[in-house]
User: Fold these one by one.
Assistant:
Number 1:
Amino acid sequence: MIDRLIISYLKYIHGLYNILVILLFLYQGWIGLRIRRERIRGTAPTVKIIKRHRRFGPILSLLGISGFFAGLTVVYLDEGHFFEHPLHFIIGLVIILLVIATFSISRRIRGRDSHWRTPHFALGVIIICLYLFQAFLGIGILF
């Protein structure tokens, strides 16, 4: 069995890791919003910004998914089951499903006037809102 002190540290590491992921999602959202505003204005967004957004999206998706599974592992090691914090678990699962959906939608965006841009934007906003709520729940679990 793993020492309780190690599990305690793992909880904090999970929290800190996911705070970093949330900050990276906020940054990604900010980049996406800049691109969206420029497109709506009718000006072409800079290629550098678009490439950064496209390159960082898949990496960020994997970081978010790995944070969810790390949390599952920590709870399982601590409690022996996954449902010790059901709301935190459900919100995390919803976030991961939305991240996967957003990633899938992003692969369908083609051309300047793609109808997939709006769902991609909406899901991104929902993901960020849920991540902030998830962090609030997680802080409540830690303290």
Number 2:
Amino acid sequence: MGLNISDIQKKKVKAEEENKKNEEKEIQELDKELESGAEDIEIKGNTTTIKTKKRDIELNGIPTEVNLDINRCIFCGHTGTERNPLFTIDNEHYICKPCLIYGFRTMLLNGIKMPSIEEMSTNEKFDAYQY
């Protein structure tokens, strides 16, 4: 009796699942080792070696700094999403709606006079410092 195609496919799927589990386990172990910090990092050619207390971790490639210019809320640090976009007036400082609402409510609860929506939307040259 030989193996049929479905048996071969089942063995292949099982082997792939086992490999995936092993890879995930190895990544978790590496994470734990790196949490304690690297003792040294050596770069030779196109190979980077991270030395930890337990072992040396060899990686292909040279570490490079990635400069991501992502707008974030100046209060909570979240990036904008479709459901919760960021807002700005100066294209430099951004704020999300929840932080804006918390700030507005904080002022109201502390007895600070706040403008109404009508006052803010009808006055073309709105001056927030008058409040």
Number 3:
Amino acid sequence: MGKQKSDILSGMGSGFQILKALRDAGATDEDLRRIIAENSPFPKLIADLIVTKVAKPVASTFRDLLAACRQDWVSPDFNGANYPLEPTDPDEAEWEVYEYHFSETANGEDAFKNLEKLGYRLCGVRRAMEFIAAYPDLQLDHPLVITARWQDPRGYWCAPFADRGVGKRRLDLVYLARGFDPRYGWLVLRKRG
């Protein structure tokens, strides 16, 4: 029994290394769940735990996450002091980052309220930066608004957004008092279905 247990644990260790390597190569949570489901005897619940708790990259600081996003330019006001990383929620694995588009131009302040009325949770900077790092070319197609707010020294509410600035990736801030056309994707959290 001791030898079998040792072999199982040894296989799990290399399996986790493989999952981490796949994650580092850009595999999404869905990719990893499919790989686990097709190649292991683990039930879905255990596969979800492996993906969310073990294979998930751990970025310990705002700076680590920002580096993973590989931006060419970042607003100096987009920093850990103005946008602190949100803590991990106990039910975090039940919520996925989702990109929502309004069908018409939406005022930024109203958008936050309307997204919550639609049943979404606002997406903090930690989860949003993980998403941007996993999908680096998405912001080259259209702007992505991170649903986290900060009030600047002049009293204006701002939200970070990732887009293409002169062909390069950038993370900037935008005033929420303005209108956002439907091409803007709002990063929110939705219940996994």
Number 4:
Amino acid sequence: MQHRHNSIDRRAVTCFLWMLALAPALAIFVFYAGVVHARLVLGHWPTLSHPDPKQIHSISFAASYSVITIAIFLTSLSPLGWIAMLPVAETFASLKSFVARIVVYLVSLVTLLTLARIDPGGFVGWFLD
């Protein structure tokens, strides 16, 4: 029975580490999916203050807005998740797989921060308005 418990723990740790590694990439995807959703609801691309995202009266967009907010919040907490997982990851993950996950995380985080900084289309400014 102990062997089964360890394999479940190993799968849970592996899954959680990949979720942490992909969190910024998923936040990018969710954000731009929400922008496309706003485009479909409005009939035009949203621009700064036109309209305020909270003024789009669509239940489906309200759900998208909430998911985007949650994704951004969880991504901002992901460094704490990495710190918390270090002792567990040392036990369950090989150095090679751990480094691979960290590289995926750092590349997607740098991409997220770069997109937020350069803000192509002005969608980050629109969302935060």
